[in-house]
Specification:
GO biological process, one term: D-ribose metabolic process
Largest sheet: 6 strands, mixed
Pfam families: Rib_5-P_isom_A
Family: Belongs to the ribose 5-phosphate isomerase family.
Bound molecules: ribulose-5-phosphate
InterPro entries: NagB/RpiA_transferase-like, Ribose5P_isomerase_typA_subgr, Ribose5P_isomerase_type_A
GO cellular component, one term: cytosol
Radius of gyration: 17 Å
CATH architecture of the largest domain: 3-Layer(aba) Sandwich
Number of helices: 6
CATH class of the largest domain: Alpha Beta
């Protein structure tokens, strides 16, 4: 099975968490895209969705799946999204697609966060994938200097603006031994809107697609 087929298999496994009448939180990225395409097959069973990005909202709408504003619905029962890296503790790095802020909001508003990923995303510790930070434009250089002080190497994502009108700094060289602590520390730096560490609110379930089948981590 190639990587894309594994992503689709993980997305397919997440359908088992979708219950009749739900409003489902939907993530962003190639794995989430598989989930969106599969959700189209059962769209009559759900009330609708909340999307974590404009691009996912467009894809959902193209399938005729209703997309609601988060403010128009209550707490969500379920959020399904991919990740750039995941540990067995279900701590994640997200934001490779630049949608980390809305992803973190929708994850935070959801009772259950089901992460879907192929086996290449599983790591012993986070940080090989550069950690995305969404940053207010005027704070870009200040935040970059603060990250250098912490031992990181910040790289501006060239030519990219988030759905919220901000920039992304990708931080290389971080060995993240305590993701909850680092997430808290980075959250204190003025100008950082969102840290791409999902550790304080980790996933609740990781559906990891392997050559042998789906491994469910909780
Ligand atoms: C987007 C994300 C994605 O979930 C992450 O980048 C994984 O993407 P893919 O499923 O394409 O590997 O966080 O901001």
């Amino acid at each position: 099975m190639d990587q894309d087929a594994m992503k689709r298999a993980a997305a397919e496994a997440a359908l088992a968490y979708v219950e009749n009448g739900m409003v489902v939180g939907v993530g962003t990225g190639s794995t989430a895209n598989h989930f969106i395409d599969l959700l189209a097959g059962i769209k009559g069973r759900i009330d609708g969705t909340v999307a974590s990005s404009e691009v996912s909202a467009q894809r959902l709408k193209s399938h005729g799946i209703p997309v609601f504003d988060l403010n128009a619905v209550g707490a969500l029962p379920l959020y399904v999204d991919g990740a750039d890296e995941a540990t067995r503790q279900l701590h994640l790095i997200k934001g490779g697609g630049g949608a980390l802020t809305r992803e973190k909001i929708v994850a935070g508003a959801s009772e259950r966060f089901v992460c879907i990923a192929d086996e290449s995303k599983l790591v012993s510790y986070l940080g090989r994938f550069p950690l995305p930070l969404e940053v207010i434009p005027m704070a870009r250089s200040f935040v970059a200097r603060e990250l250098v002080r912490l031992g990181g190497k910040p790289v501006l994502r060239e030519g990219f603006t988030t759905d919220n009108g901000n920039l992304i700094l990708d931080i290389q060289n971080l060995e993240i031994m305590d993701p909850v602590k680092l997430e808290g520390e980075l959250n204190m730096i003025p100008g950082i809107v969102t840290v791409g560490l999902f550790a304080a609110r980790p996933a609740d379930v990781l559906l990891l697609s392997t050559a042998q089948g789906i491994e469910t981590l909780k």
